[in-house]
Amino acid sequence: WESAWDSGDNKEEEAATETTGQSGPWLQDCVVAMSPCSDLLVVAREQKAVFLSAKWRSNDSGREEMTLAVSWTGTLSTDEGECVSSSVCIPLASQKRSSTGRPDWTCVVVGFTSGYVRFYTENGVLLLAQLLHEDPVLRLKCRTYEIPRHPGVTEQHEELSILYPAALVTIDGFSLFQSLRACRNQVARAAAAGSDVIQPPPLAYKKWGLQDMDTIVDHSSVGIMTLCVFDQMKNASILGGFNASVKGSPPAMSQYVTVGGGPYTGFYYAVEGSSQPLLSHVALAVASKLTSALFNAASGWLGWNKNKNEEEAVQKQKPKVEPATPLGIRFGLPDSRRHGESICLSPCNTLAGVTDDFGRVSLLDLARGISIRMWKGYRDAQLGWLQVPEERGDREFSPSASLPRRHALFLVIYAPRRGILEVWAMQQGPRVGAFTVGKHCRLLYAGYRLMGVNSVTSQGWQLHTQQVCLLDPITGALRTVNIPFHLALSDKKSERAKDMHLLKRLTTILRSREVEPDILESEAKSVLLDIKHPAIKKQALESLLSNKNAPVSCLTKVTGALYDVLKQQDKLLSPTQQDSFEGIEEELSRVGPTLQRYAQLTSRPSVSFAQDSPYSPLPAQAFLSQMECTEDGELRVIRGSETEWNRLGNFMFWGCLCGNSPLHKVCDTLQEAGISPQQLLSLLLSVWLQREKEMLQKPGETVRNLHTLLIALSNMKGAVEESWDTQSISPWWQQVRHTCIQSHNSAAALLAAFVAHRAAKASITSRLQSEWEAVSLELEQWVVFVRQLEDVLVLQTLLLVPPPQGSGGGAAAQCSIKTLMEGGTGGIADSVSKWVFRHNLSPERLKEILQKREDKEAEDKLEQKAGEEGKEQEEKSQEDTDRTAELLVAVCQRFPHSLSPDLLFAHCCWEYVVQWNKDPEVIKLHILMMCVCVQDVGMGDKAATYFLGCCVQLLQILMEADSAVEEVPAPELSVEEAWFGAEGPASIAELALEQRGVHYPLVQHHCLLASLLHSAMTFSLKVKPLSLFDSKGKNAFFRDLTTIQLMPSGDMDPGLISLRQEFLLRVLTAWVQAIDDSSGTSPPPLPSSGPKADWWPSMCLELGSLLQVNPDILRRHLVCELYNQGLDPRAEEVMLEVEDKDVLGSQLLVLTGQRLSYSLLHSQSQTQAAMELLARLPPTLCTWLKAMDPGELRCPLVPLPQTSRLVGRLIEILPENHAQYSLALHLLEAVEALTTED
Fold it and tell me: Does pTM top 0.70 for this prediction?
């Protein structure tokens, strides 16, 4: 059989066969096992073995050191052909009361390929031999007692587990311990009596036949576990189905994990105290159909046994072997191509490392049965575990000092192919160590301690055991792996632990007497400067100063270097202030483009009087007149006029803000003067806000100086109250906000808010003295306030953009947080709508800009970064109008609710109505409302016509909105989060939503009147519009559109219908005359508005249907008028829609006769051919043509082909039995003859 190597629970490691075909050093072919006490090493190959015991010897320099020397050699096998396949060294605890944890003696357990397991003393004396199964022993592993670290952890029993290719034997640890002690005593007695006969006591063991796995090469006995109720119910449901019942208390089970192939990892569970199959702990009591005998017979089918005859021959000489109890696999990790090679159980019994033939190391979570981590590139890896307790020094500074000591878990991986030993923190931790070692070493990991220990006997013991050792066969060195506990901690938690580690390092150096003074100085200096915590730094300095061996020169240099570093730290700006100013610079760069545009718009020259200027020098008399000394001896500033206050502030602080005056000197002087910090703050803010233009020329420098001044004022006595709770509002910072809220200088207010916000945050952080980020009501107020000021700055920048020359007047509106909050929810939209009016933006242009905003938002989400980089270049190349549009888009993005397109259009509409009401003649309306008709409307013809057209549009919009009101839900009016709490008049939208809905028939009735008026005004038709309606219709006019009125119904008076018809026919005639164009085959397109608009005929037809006028009469009239005007192509289009073709044919026959009469009789250029043609015509036709009056034609001279086409149409539409059909035929002949003559 091929040996597989093990890096699991025992110390024994077996050599993997070299894949390259080259044999490594001799140790690679040996079975190696080591005692966890590091006092016994066993090396075995085939039948022979060597035992090496620990001995103290003197080295060449005379120092004592421990070595492992050969204590016994010999042959272990007794049966022919058997070889050693596995081994473990188990130290047995002493039973004496005086014992302190050292082992009494060590038992060497050896497994053979014959199936025998034999137990030896350290001197190679055989104590016990057992044949538990007739297959080669693959693995021996041991588990010993471990003190539970936490309450509730199941106490594990000691045991020795023996793995065979298809069976697992577990020997109870207590029984084995007693048996080995008894055997050792018997051997001692027999040796004394000269006898070799030993009667071995029976061993208590369990034997499980592991089923459902193709090959097994290694195992781990995890121990006893108890399922939680949820897992018990889950298993019952999965295995027992819907009707499964669950036992009251889940029984304890032993868990075994195996690795190999098919599946790659298998999980087995055996119920304690029962030999029933695995599933007995749930409701399914499935009896195994494989009896033990059948199982043994089946092993031959599975290929585990050799030739039957050979097997029977051997069995005759061997003792009887008990059959195995079948144990079915619960579940596994299936991976058909991957084969496990070894498994190594962690000391806490919850994790296991598994190696495989793909060069992977997998980490298993044994409770969940899943793989939680995997490492690549570790072919032939060997594994071990290290569990490191927290040091006592670390516990003193730990927040969990009262809890049990913490333990850190590390996985050790030895990769022989790369010659590297790595240490990884569990479970998802980083690699904390890596060491270059030889390529032929063996990693020895026991995974157990002393056998025979229990909770009573282990009290007060110090168990001296090594967890992981590395044996190098080249040098013969045996090295142990030790890891500091703090490597398992994260950076923040381990700072103090690292400092303790540095302190220990310094202490070790100071204790050593052989260190050179130069080395001592450099090491002590680096350690003292690296330690972060002041308390530990002080402790290190004290230990250095109290050391007698350190030279005085070394002490002075180290303390001098430390003093210089501390002094330099004091001079530097405090970290919170430095961090806060870095934050301000970031915010400045973010709002930089807006500030720049704002500065350009506000830098236009203005006129002011010199005596009112706050920048003029302040005379001493004026300065003293504003100062007052109180009874308490304090100095108080008298607040006079705004100009005087600003001049005083300018005198005190402008030099500091510009950088011309020493900041701290000025602050110290003011503090000594005794002026209250609140008054100084008010003066500082007044000059800052007043001199916005100068400040914006060098914003970076002035903001830095303001930051320094504000912090200096905040640190004055009486500024920020000592008793101020950081979770409440500070009156000091509230004063800053109150001043900025009222300021119309948006840029200065925003920069002051940036500075104050950061200063307040630094102040709160220093008060809390916590690593966590401070969260308080004060900071929340600042976040909202800064957001509001940013919004105001962008809005103010837009409002400052000057309108194009010649546009509507009005100065730019000034806005602040106060004005916007008092303007109500519609105040922002109202300001923007006034700006839109001043810039005379058409609705189409406004809609286009808002559409760009939506597109931009979508692009920003995809390419935010790219957009920011290219923004500056675009702005340079774009025109002012495009920059203005971008600014409007930016404002709309900052106010997505207040400036939603619908709200903005509604406010713009209202603004135009207000402005039109002031001057109806000049201002052209884009969107209008209905107004009351009076005799004198105060408008000229053009303005009135345009106004009536807008009225029609508005009434049509009202009808469309009313018809869709049930389908579309009412809009929800919301405000941006930063602008909640606005108080003021209700917005247009809120008022509109409170209005009642219109009465559709009444609106339609008014729309009818407006359309008739618009038609009359457009075509200059004289008509009394109210005469076209009956009494009911007249009474319904000019009522509130939301009321229900008595409307006209039923058939109208024929005389009224006749009047209406006559008016509509006049409108059609006027339209035809308006569109008179040069005749051609295809008519040119018509405009969309004005008297030539193409929609007039369809509107007349709609009005006709509402006014009970026959639409076919209107169509026939339109066809005749178009032919009369010579617009034959347009007439042919309309002719297709005429229903009564007979009447139309009669009308067109007369029109054709008039055209022909003009060509033959009335044309000034009559030819002889025409006269001859007239003579040839039938007498009736000649008489009829002479009776025609061509003067009725507005366009008598029409090309003959058009007239010929018209006659052809006549023949088509007139029926043959028509009275004038023959006349039409004669006309056709005459036209054809005339065309031929031409």
Answer: no
